[in-house]
Amino acid sequence: MHTLVVGLSHQTAPVELREKFSFDPDRIAIPLRSLRDMKSMLECVIVSTCNRTELYIVADQLHTGEYYAKAFLESWFRVSREEFVPHLYVKTNKDAVEHLFRVVCGLESLVIGETQILGQVKHAFQMALQAGTTGTLFNHLFKQAISLGKKAHTETEIGQNAVSVSYAAVELGKKLFTSFAKKTVLLVGAGKMSELTAKHFQSVGVKDVLVVNRTFSKAEELAKVFHGTAYPWGSLPQALLAADVVVSSTGAKNYVITHEMIQTVVSERKKPLFFIDIAVPRDIDPSVNELDNAFLYNMDDLEEIVAANIGLRQQEAERVGAWIAEEQTLFQEWLDTLGVVPVISALRTKALQIQADAMMKIERKLPDLTEQQRRVINKQTKSIVNQMMHDPIMRMKELASTEEKEVALQLFKHLFALELDNEQTDEVQGKVRPMGQPLMN
C-alpha cells in the first residue's frame, strides 16, 4: 500500500486557478466515491478550502494512483492537465504523512498557526467516513493527525500572537480597554485596511461603527457593511467625540487629525481615545501621543509587533516540528506492524486450537473432573500457551520495523508452520473490496 497526496495550494497556484478546483465540503460524497472507484484507489479523503484542494489517497500502485488522481481532477473540473499539472504537488508515503501533520498544525497555512484548517481537515475526514471511502490506514492516520493538531494548538502559542497589521491593532487595544462591548470605532477614510481593522474590532465585541469620508456616499456605503453611521467630512470633530477607537487611512498628503483638534476632544471626553494611523503618509499628528488620554500607534508600531509575533510563532513552529517527527515515527511503526497482524493472528488461532484439543483429551481421560477442576485446568493451559507465544510475538513486532521484515516474516511462518490464505492477509491491509464498494472499517 502507498499513501500519497496530490494537491494545489496558495504556495503553488494562483487564486484564479485554485478557484477552479473547489469542492463543496458538505456535498463531497459523490466526488469521494468517484475518486475511490478509479483504478488502484483503496482509500481517499478530499480536503478543500479557499487556500488548498488536496486528494489524500491510499493506492496499491504509486504511479497508477498518481496518474488517476490527475485524471480525476481533469475530468471532474473539466480543466486540461496542461493548465494545472505545473502547479500540482505530489507527496508520497512518509512525505505525504508529514505533509498532513504539517497541514493540521497550521504550518502550511498562509498565516502560520491558524486554527481553522484543523476543523476543515476534521470535517473532510468525517465526510469520507460517512461516504465509506476510508479504511484501516486512513482511519488511523487522520485520527492521529487530528489529535496532533489539537495538541499543537492547545499546548503551544503558535496561534496566539497577532501576525497581521489589522489584528495587531486589536491586540494593542486590549491593553487599553478591558472590554470592547460598549466601545465605538470611528473609521476615518473608507479604505480596505480601515474596513479590515474594523472587522477585527467587531469580532471582539465592538457594536457601534462610525464612518467619516471626504466622499459622503462612500462613507454611507461602508457604514452599511457594519450597520453603522456615516458622517460628512465636516463633522469629523463631532464623530471623534463619540468614538473610543479611531482607525485612520485617508491617503491625504497632510495631517487630517491635528494636535489642537484632539486636545479639544480629550478635554471634553475625559476618557481614553485610542488612535490607529495606518495611512502612509500619516493622517494623525504624532504630537497627539503627548496628550493625556490619547494613545497613538502608526504602521511602524504595528509592523514591529507583527514581526515580533511572527518570530514567536516560528519558535513554536519548531517545537511543533519536533512533535511531527515523533508522530511520523509512531505512524511508521504502526504501519510496519500491519503486515505481521495476520501472522500473529494465525499463530494465536493455532495455539488456542491446540489448547482446546488438549482439553478435550483431558476431559475424555478424566471424566470425573468437577466443573471447578475443568475451569482451573482450562485457565492454566491457556496461560501456558499465552506465555509461550508472548516472546515470539514481541520479537516479530520488533522485526516488523527493520529491513529484514520480509525474511523474518517468512521464517516465522515456516518455524510455526502457519498457513495464511490471501483473504486473511488482504483484509488486514485494507484491500478486500469489490471495485466501487466501500472499505470495511
Automatic annotation (TrEMBL):
Pathway annotation: Porphyrin-containing compound metabolism; protoporphyrin-IX biosynthesis; 5-aminolevulinate from L-glutamyl-tRNA(Glu): step 1/2
Keyword Oxidoreductase on entry: yes
Native species: Shimazuella alba
Task performed by this protein: Catalyzes the NADPH-dependent reduction of glutamyl-tRNA(Glu) to glutamate 1-semialdehyde (GSA).
HAMAP family (UniProt xref): Glu_tRNA_reductase (MF_00087)
Catalytic activity, EC: 1.2.1.70
Subunit structure: Homodimer.
Family: Belongs to the glutamyl-tRNA reductase family.
Alphabetized PROSITE patterns for the sequence: GLUTR (PS00747)
The UniProt record lists the keyword Oxidoreductase: yes
Lineage of producing organism: Bacteria, Bacillati, Bacillota, Bacilli, Bacillales
GN (gene name): hemA
Annotated signal sequence range: none
Key words, A-Z: NADP, Oxidoreductase, Porphyrin biosynthesis
Miscellaneous section: During catalysis, the active site Cys acts as a nucleophile attacking the alpha-carbonyl group of tRNA-bound glutamate with the formation of a thioester intermediate between enzyme and glutamate, and the concomitant release of tRNA(Glu). The thioester intermediate is finally reduced by direct hydride transfer from NADPH, to form the product GSA.
GO MF annotations, alphabetized: glutamyl-tRNA reductase activity; NADP binding
Residues forming the catalytic site: 50
Protein name per UniProt: Glutamyl-tRNA reductase
